[in-house]
Amino acid sequence: MVGNSVVCLSAKAPKEMGSNSAEKFYRIPEGKGPHSVGCTDLMTENAAEGSFLRLYYPSCNATDNEEAPWIPDKEYYQGLSDFLNMYRVVGERLFQYYVGSVTCPAKPNADFKPGEKYPLLVFSHGLGAFRTIYSAICIEMASQGFIVAAVEHRDESASATYYCKKKSVSETEEESTPNMEKEWIYYRKLKSGEEERCLRHKQVQQRAQECIKALNLILKINSGEEVMNVLNSDFDWNKLKDSVDTSRIAVMGHSFGGATVIESLSKEIRFRCGIALDAWMLPVGDDTYKNSVQQPLLFINSEKFQWADNILKMKKLSSNDSNKKMITIKGSVHQSFPDFTFVSGEIIGKFFKLKGEIDPNEAIDISNHASLAFLQKHLSLTKDFDKWDSLVDGIGPNVISGTNIDLSPSQALLSVCVSRKSWLCGWLKAALIFRAELSSCHKEELLSE
Questions:
Q1: Which pLDDT belongs to residue 354?
Q2: Largest Cα–Cα distance in the chain?
């Protein structure tokens, strides 16, 4: 009886406090740098082979308080529900109830801030994620003077994504009917008996190509070439002309996105360095380990996610190279990097490993500061990010050099690969099941709202 009461209270608390979601209680942190931040979406071509990304950028100070929606379409709720093996009708309602009004602190389509050349950072999301849920990291980088292109991958590793295709309409309908519609692509589950490494390696190849394609797209805009955005947007892309410092380009990603960073570095020398956040190494191909990643690379790991075999693969890639670093954030978990860590309460967050023992804001600050210091060194930036150089060496509160994982031969043999759902939101599956198992009266009330 006590347990059921706690569940009902936690589920109803936001509504009883006058909110339809957690938005009033928990917020994605604002950027701490000197620049205001804007964001806009860019999609090219009416086919899955085009590019799709969210651009975060230094912006002129906006006069209104509008912020971008965090999860922009209900189909993303459906995709997350599929990914987590939830009924869509239940999952969609729960996501809408819990995070439906959450926004990210970036101004949609705000005017781009001209006057200087900005380094470019391409960001790759994790398995089951999509372009918007690492906004805390991307916004911080943009506030510090980076243009950030957060790619939404179409390799069927995102919970959901889409492209715009032309509708087939008759001539009489053509004038009154929009001629574009969204074609949704949802997460592809492993088939029975399918070997995961083969699928993930194929996907990471496509992901790397999508990162390179995003790089080419931004550089094309930078050179003044006209690019057709198939999405309706008020953003003036012409203002990006000559705004990118083409000699200062890096790639960054989390989990499956960390593997994508490594593959992208191996394929594209214009990426001068990379940052892999809690990388999942299974998708990385054998050829990549054969001295094909020459650029500097920073591994930033959580304390609770990694295992011996995964760490040994990182070390195999970075052995005897002083420009390849590894640090671990003490008290952190795999979900200390995506935004979900900021929009959940303390009890649910810790119970489902969405939050670690360390404060989420401190964890993301350590990660961001180490990243900025690393980028300053290897992109030759003239900033003051070198004040955080010690973090890159694993020196400071709540950070260690290398790993906390026991790498002894016996432990390496015993290490077991983490379940494929755990690196994005295994915690979320449990959380949604937890919420779905409310009393029948509460479920009826929630679904009838």
A1: 78
A2: 72
- 8 A C-beta contact, residue 172 and residue 141: no
Return the pLDDT at 173: 54
pLDDT tens figures, 304-357:
999 999 999 999 998 788 999 999 999 999 999 999 999 887 776 766 677 889
Residue for token pair 């979320």:
428
- CA 14 → CA 21, 69, 99, 110, distances in Å? 6, 19, 10, 31
Q: Is 402 left (phi over 0), alpha (psi -120 to 50) or beta?
A: left
CA distances from 51 to 100, 115, 219, 254, 445 (A): 26, 27, 13, 20, 41
Report which residue type is found at 374. Answer: F
Distance separating alpha carbons of residues 133 and 147, to the nearest angstrom: 17
- pTM of the predicted model as reported, rounded to 2 decimal places: 0.87
Among 92-101, 255-264, 383-392, the least confident range = 92-101
Q: β-strand 147-151 against 52-59: which pairing, if any?
A: antiparallel
Look at residue 250 and give its three-state secondary structure: strand
Place of tokens 């009917």: 177
Q: State percent of the chain over pLDDT 90.
A: 71
pLDDT-based confidence at 177, cuts 50/70/90?
very low
Comparing C-alpha atoms, which of 165, 119, 134, 174 is closest to residue 39? 134
Using an 8 Å Cβ cutoff, are 358 and 332 in contact?
yes
Tokens of 345: 């309460």
DSSP string, 356-404: -SS-HHHHHHHHHHHHHHHHHHHHT--SSGGGGHHHHTT-STTEEES-S
Helices 88-99 and 440-448, axial angle in degrees (round to 10): 80
Question: Which residues are catalytically annotated?
Answer: 255, 278, 334
234 is written with which tokens? 């008020």
Task: Give the separation between CA 186 and CA 48, rounded to whole angstroms.
Answer: 12
* Under 8 Å between Cβ of 371 and 337: no
Closest to 126 measured CA to CA, from 40, 212, 47, 203 = 203
Query: Could you give phi then psi for residue 154, rounded to 5 degrees?
Result: -115, 30
The class that CATH gives domain 2-160+193-448 is alpha beta
Instruction: Please count the CA atoms within 13 angstroms of the CA of 11 that sit on its side-chain side.
Output: 25
pLDDT at 305 (0 to 100): 96
Residue 61: what pLDDT? 82
Confidence class of residue 415 from pLDDT cuts 50, 70 and 90?
A: low
Identify the pLDDT of residue 93: 92
**Contacts (Cβ under 8 Å, ≥6 apart) of 381:** 119, 248, 375
- The ranges assigned to domains in the chain are 2-160+193-448
